[in-house]
Each structure stands twice: as structure tokens, then as C-alpha cells.
């Protein structure tokens, strides 16, 4: 069934059961790989709130989670755009850190933000992303745990919004042609 949000129509793309199944698999892999490391998960708001909640509840190991927002502002010519994290209070030094993102699209967000986290010298810095659009990615990012590789179409639901709406949908929709 297609749905209407603002002025656009969207069609079902990834069903809720398929999403949950894949997220369970990712949580299983993470639990296996990071057992005993007491990883710190960092979820990037707003979009990742549902993915973060689901993957975190399927983990079977000791782990911490923290939520941050990113703010982007124009830096100097040499620094380009600068992204700062709002709400990051944990010390990452020596920690196993897993960034949780709903989607890597152009890759700009993470390719700018990950080097800043590296400055804090975590022991390991990993990325878990639910969705990746390889055909849209102009700034390559290493994704260690990926849910789905998707075509370059605008997606909606499960945290992803179109102009503020649609984040509450439990499945993922794509823009109708
Ligand atoms: O790979 P990129 O092209 O940088 O795109 C990915 C980013 O875009 C979305 O966030 P957005 O800035 O829309 O904010 P939101 O999560 O609050 O919706 C998404 O949650 C990622 O953080
Ligand atoms: O496809 C998308 N949909 C919603 N928000 C997004 N942010 C990056 N890509 C997308």
C-alpha cells in the first residue's frame, strides 16, 4: 500500500519483519565480536533512534549507549565544514566504540565526524549502519556492520523522515517514481 507524506507518495520497501530479522543478526554478530570489551555504542540523532533502540535490546553482552546530535558549521578554508558532537560526555580513550547510524548516504556526515572521534584515541572505532546507498556515496566510509545496501532513492520510515514526518513508521518506504 502506498502512503502520502506531505506532497509525495511512498511505497513499501523493507518490511518490518525483514528489518527486525536483519537487526537481530547484526546484534548477534556484534555480541559475538565484542564480548568482554564492554563497548560504548554512540547513536547519532535524530534518525538512528529506532535502530539504536532495537539493536541495543537484542545485544546479549555488557554494553553502554549514549546519544548525540551533530551540529555542522562553516569552518575556515583549511578545515572546511566542521561537525561538532552535542552531548558526548564519555571519554573514548582506550574504549571499543560503535557508531550507530540509520543511513550512510553521501557519507559526508561520518567521513567528517569519525576523524574527530579518532582524536580521542578509542581502542577500536566501528560503524554499524542500517542502510547504505553505495551509488550516492561521494565520501567513502568504512561500514563494519551493515544492514542493507540500497539503491539511490529517497527512503522514509523507521527513523528516517521527509521534512519531519514519517519517522514513526515501523517499516521502510521508498519514494514512488
Ligand atoms: O551520508 P550523509 O549524506 O551525510 O547522510 C546521512 C545522515 O543524514 C541523516 O541525518 P540528517 O542530517 O537528515 O538528520 P536527522 O537524523 O536528524 O534526520 C542520517 O541520519 C545521517 O546522519
Ligand atoms: O534517503 C533518505 N531519507 C531520509 N533521510 C535521509 N538522510 C540521508 N538520506 C536520507
TrEMBL record:
Keywords: Cytoplasm, Glycosyltransferase, Magnesium, Metal-binding, Nucleotide-binding, Purine salvage, Transferase. One of its GO terms (biological process) is hypoxanthine metabolic process. It catalyses: GMP + diphosphate = guanine + 5-phospho-alpha-D-ribose 1-diphosphate; IMP + diphosphate = hypoxanthine + 5-phospho-alpha-D-ribose 1-diphosphate. CDD domains: PRTases_typeI. Pathway: Purine metabolism; IMP biosynthesis via salvage pathway; IMP from hypoxanthine: step 1/1. It is an enzyme of class 2 (transferase). Its cofactor is Mg(2+). Pfam families: Pribosyltran (PF00156). It comes from the Bacteria. GO terms for molecular function: guanine phosphoribosyltransferase activity; hypoxanthine phosphoribosyltransferase activity; magnesium ion binding; nucleotide binding. Gene3D superfamilies: 3.40.50.2020. Its EC number is 2.4.2.8. GO terms for cellular component: cytosol. InterPro entries: HGPRT, Hxn_phspho_trans, PRTase-like, PRTase_dom. Residues 19-162 form the Phosphoribosyltransferase domain. It is found in: Cytoplasm. Belongs to the purine/pyrimidine phosphoribosyltransferase family. This is Hypoxanthine phosphoribosyltransferase. It comes from Chitinophaga cymbidii.
